[in-house]
Amino acid sequence: MPKPKSSLKFPRVLLKLSGEALMGSQSYGHDLTTIERICKEIKDVHAKGVEICLVVGGGNIYRGIAGAAAGMDRAAADYMGMLATVINSLALQNKLEQMGVDTRVLSAIPMMTVCEPYIRRRAVRHMEKNRVVIFAAGTGNPFFTTDTAAALRAVEMRCDALIKATQVDGVYSADPKKDKNAKRYTKLSYRDVLTKDLQVMDASAISLSRENQLPILVFSIHTHGEFAKVVEGKGKFTIIE
Fold first, then answer.
1. What is the CATH number of domain 12-240?
2. Of 91, 79, 113, 99, whose CA–CA distance to 29 is shortest?
3. What pTM was estimated for this model as a whole?
């Protein structure tokens, strides 16, 4: 299906949110004020005519890899993590629809009572109807992160960019909160990210993006109005391409 023509730099984007982004200053779960602020930013970008889809992690509720480290079977722990992403997706959907934004949640693990199953053509159609589409339950498979799910869905939706919202304003050579000498990058190649072992996304997500020439833009979710600037190719971010 052809994408709509637009004067926007990135007319169709996938926004990747971590589960931790929904916690605010809390140590667990949801901070409703933070969710409202994030959804307001999504609404503002959507109002510009940008077609938006989202993937959200589940780390604010349950991290599969942490469960595996504690002795749980990795596959079972990952499935629990996927269910956590469904909870987060429904929270975002609820707030967006309260703001008047038509939204659909599509889950890679079918659960017809609460959301639609993921079908690629249906998801594309929702976006063409100006709905915000939230992809839940990762890829539906254990051993894959929500970063990989974000890259996969962005490619499937033929997005112009994968935009990753993080705790800092781009990609650094080290954690800037721990290392004051950490270098901030404005532009990187996919190979740079892999060879420098920069912990921005896992290797499978970077490789999938490279194979499909999908640019990745990394920005801070905590900077008000930054998402709107990033989709216009402005603001403060790191681009990986």
1. 3.40.1160.10
2. 91
3. 0.94
